[in-house]
Amino acid sequence: MTDPFSLFESWFAEARKTEINDSNSMTIATADADGQPSARMVLLKGHGPDGFVFYTNQQSRKANDIAENPKAAILFHWKSLRRQIRIEGSLSMVSAATADAYFATRGRDSQLGAWASDQSRPLESRATFEARFAEMTKRFDGGDVPRPPHWSGYRLTPVHFEFWQDQAHRLHERRVFSRSGDGWSQGLLYP
Q1: pLDDT exceeds cutoff 90 at 120
Q2: What positions carry a catalytic annotation?
Q3: Is 0.85 surpassed by the pTM of this model?
Protein backbone atom coordinates (compact mmCIF):
# COMPACT_ATOMS: atom_id res chain seq x y z
CA MET A 1 0.00 0.00 0.00
CA THR A 2 1.17 3.50 -0.77
CA ASP A 3 -1.35 5.24 1.51
CA PRO A 4 -0.55 5.21 5.25
CA PHE A 5 -4.21 5.71 6.19
CA SER A 6 -5.27 2.58 4.28
CA LEU A 7 -2.46 0.58 5.88
CA PHE A 8 -3.46 1.91 9.31
CA GLU A 9 -7.09 0.90 8.70
CA SER A 10 -6.03 -2.59 7.65
CA TRP A 11 -3.86 -3.11 10.74
CA PHE A 12 -6.46 -1.51 13.04
CA ALA A 13 -9.19 -3.82 11.69
CA GLU A 14 -6.99 -6.83 12.52
CA ALA A 15 -6.29 -5.45 16.00
CA ARG A 16 -10.01 -5.05 16.72
CA LYS A 17 -10.33 -8.81 16.13
CA THR A 18 -7.29 -9.97 18.13
CA GLU A 19 -6.71 -7.52 20.98
CA ILE A 20 -8.67 -8.57 24.04
CA ASN A 21 -8.84 -5.13 25.64
CA ASP A 22 -8.96 -1.67 24.12
CA SER A 23 -7.59 -2.18 20.63
CA ASN A 24 -8.08 1.58 20.27
CA SER A 25 -5.74 2.45 23.16
CA MET A 26 -2.75 4.56 22.24
CA THR A 27 0.06 6.31 24.00
CA ILE A 28 0.21 10.03 23.38
CA ALA A 29 3.45 11.85 24.08
CA THR A 30 3.44 15.62 24.49
CA ALA A 31 6.01 18.12 25.71
CA ASP A 32 5.54 21.39 27.54
CA ALA A 33 7.10 24.74 26.55
CA ASP A 34 10.38 23.73 28.26
CA GLY A 35 10.51 20.48 26.29
CA GLN A 36 9.67 18.27 29.30
CA PRO A 37 8.00 15.17 27.79
CA SER A 38 5.02 13.36 29.22
CA ALA A 39 3.30 10.21 27.92
CA ARG A 40 -0.01 8.60 28.85
CA MET A 41 -2.61 6.23 27.44
CA VAL A 42 -5.77 7.57 25.80
CA LEU A 43 -8.43 6.03 23.56
CA LEU A 44 -8.69 6.70 19.85
CA LYS A 45 -12.25 7.87 19.20
CA GLY A 46 -12.10 8.73 15.51
CA HIS A 47 -9.72 8.50 12.58
CA GLY A 48 -9.49 9.09 8.86
CA PRO A 49 -7.49 11.05 6.31
CA ASP A 50 -7.97 14.20 8.40
CA GLY A 51 -6.27 12.65 11.45
CA PHE A 52 -6.66 10.80 14.74
CA VAL A 53 -9.06 12.04 17.44
CA PHE A 54 -9.10 11.66 21.24
CA TYR A 55 -10.93 13.56 24.00
CA THR A 56 -9.82 15.04 27.32
CA ASN A 57 -10.32 17.66 29.99
CA GLN A 58 -9.01 21.00 28.67
CA GLN A 59 -7.47 21.71 32.08
CA SER A 60 -5.40 18.50 32.18
CA ARG A 61 -1.64 18.34 31.94
CA LYS A 62 -1.83 17.02 28.37
CA ALA A 63 -4.09 19.91 27.32
CA ASN A 64 -1.69 22.40 28.94
CA ASP A 65 1.22 20.77 27.09
CA ILE A 66 -0.69 20.96 23.81
CA ALA A 67 -1.50 24.66 24.37
CA GLU A 68 2.23 25.35 24.84
CA ASN A 69 3.51 22.97 22.15
CA PRO A 70 0.92 21.58 19.70
CA LYS A 71 3.16 18.80 18.36
CA ALA A 72 2.81 15.25 19.59
CA ALA A 73 3.40 11.59 18.85
CA ILE A 74 0.99 8.70 19.26
CA LEU A 75 1.82 5.02 19.48
CA PHE A 76 -0.37 1.97 18.96
CA HIS A 77 1.06 -1.31 20.25
CA TRP A 78 -0.79 -4.51 19.47
CA LYS A 79 1.07 -7.29 21.25
CA SER A 80 -1.18 -10.02 19.87
CA LEU A 81 -0.17 -9.02 16.33
CA ARG A 82 3.43 -8.16 17.24
CA ARG A 83 2.94 -4.78 15.57
CA GLN A 84 3.13 -1.13 16.44
CA ILE A 85 2.42 2.11 14.62
CA ARG A 86 4.08 5.41 15.50
CA ILE A 87 2.47 8.61 14.22
CA GLU A 88 3.82 12.15 14.61
CA GLY A 89 2.07 15.42 13.83
CA SER A 90 0.36 18.57 15.02
CA LEU A 91 -2.69 18.80 17.25
CA SER A 92 -5.73 21.02 16.87
CA MET A 93 -9.06 21.07 18.70
CA VAL A 94 -12.07 19.45 17.12
CA SER A 95 -15.14 21.60 16.54
CA ALA A 96 -17.63 22.13 19.36
CA ALA A 97 -20.24 20.24 17.32
CA THR A 98 -17.90 17.24 16.95
CA ALA A 99 -17.13 17.25 20.69
CA ASP A 100 -20.83 17.59 21.56
CA ALA A 101 -21.75 14.68 19.27
CA TYR A 102 -19.12 12.39 20.77
CA PHE A 103 -19.91 13.43 24.38
CA ALA A 104 -23.57 12.49 23.81
CA THR A 105 -22.50 8.90 23.02
CA ARG A 106 -20.63 8.41 26.31
CA GLY A 107 -22.19 6.53 29.18
CA ARG A 108 -23.97 8.70 31.73
CA ASP A 109 -21.43 7.96 34.50
CA SER A 110 -18.58 8.94 32.16
CA GLN A 111 -20.42 12.17 31.34
CA LEU A 112 -20.93 12.91 35.04
CA GLY A 113 -17.29 12.05 35.74
CA ALA A 114 -16.19 14.67 33.21
CA TRP A 115 -18.04 17.29 35.27
CA ALA A 116 -16.80 15.97 38.64
CA SER A 117 -13.09 15.61 37.81
CA ASP A 118 -10.44 18.32 38.04
CA GLN A 119 -8.21 16.08 35.93
CA SER A 120 -4.48 16.12 36.73
CA ARG A 121 -4.93 18.33 39.81
CA PRO A 122 -4.15 17.18 43.36
CA LEU A 123 -7.02 15.30 45.05
CA GLU A 124 -7.41 15.45 48.82
CA SER A 125 -9.11 12.06 49.06
CA ARG A 126 -11.14 9.61 47.01
CA ALA A 127 -14.13 10.58 49.15
CA THR A 128 -13.86 14.16 47.85
CA PHE A 129 -14.10 12.96 44.26
CA GLU A 130 -16.98 10.60 45.07
CA ALA A 131 -18.85 13.48 46.76
CA ARG A 132 -18.36 15.64 43.68
CA PHE A 133 -19.63 12.80 41.50
CA ALA A 134 -22.72 12.46 43.72
CA GLU A 135 -23.25 16.23 43.47
CA MET A 136 -23.16 16.06 39.66
CA THR A 137 -25.52 13.07 39.69
CA LYS A 138 -28.01 15.14 41.70
CA ARG A 139 -27.46 18.27 39.58
CA PHE A 140 -28.31 16.50 36.32
CA ASP A 141 -30.92 14.09 37.74
CA GLY A 142 -33.67 13.44 35.20
CA GLY A 143 -32.04 15.35 32.36
CA ASP A 144 -29.37 15.10 29.73
CA VAL A 145 -25.78 15.77 30.76
CA PRO A 146 -24.32 18.48 28.52
CA ARG A 147 -20.65 18.54 27.56
CA PRO A 148 -18.68 20.55 30.13
CA PRO A 149 -17.10 23.72 28.70
CA HIS A 150 -13.67 22.45 29.82
CA TRP A 151 -13.92 19.14 27.93
CA SER A 152 -13.24 18.62 24.22
CA GLY A 153 -11.23 16.69 21.70
CA TYR A 154 -8.04 16.98 19.70
CA ARG A 155 -7.15 15.81 16.24
CA LEU A 156 -3.57 14.83 15.44
CA THR A 157 -2.83 15.64 11.80
CA PRO A 158 0.01 13.31 10.80
CA VAL A 159 3.23 14.25 9.08
CA HIS A 160 5.02 10.94 9.73
CA PHE A 161 4.05 7.27 10.18
CA GLU A 162 6.15 4.25 11.08
CA PHE A 163 4.66 0.76 10.77
CA TRP A 164 6.72 -1.78 12.74
CA GLN A 165 6.25 -5.52 12.28
CA ASP A 166 8.08 -8.08 14.40
CA GLN A 167 10.18 -10.54 12.39
CA ALA A 168 12.29 -13.55 13.33
CA HIS A 169 15.74 -12.99 14.83
CA ARG A 170 14.92 -9.30 15.53
CA LEU A 171 15.12 -8.60 11.78
CA HIS A 172 11.99 -6.45 12.09
CA GLU A 173 10.33 -4.60 9.25
CA ARG A 174 10.02 -0.82 9.64
CA ARG A 175 8.03 0.97 6.95
CA VAL A 176 7.83 4.77 7.04
CA PHE A 177 5.66 7.38 5.35
CA SER A 178 6.42 11.11 5.47
CA ARG A 179 4.23 13.95 4.28
CA SER A 180 5.47 15.26 0.93
CA GLY A 181 3.36 18.12 -0.43
CA ASP A 182 -0.15 16.76 -0.89
CA GLY A 183 1.05 13.14 -0.83
CA TRP A 184 3.34 10.77 1.02
CA SER A 185 6.85 9.54 0.39
CA GLN A 186 7.67 6.11 1.73
CA GLY A 187 10.68 4.04 2.61
CA LEU A 188 12.17 1.47 4.96
CA LEU A 189 14.36 1.76 8.05
CA TYR A 190 16.91 -0.70 9.36
CA PRO A 191 15.60 -2.53 12.44
Answers
A1: no
A2: 170
A3: yes
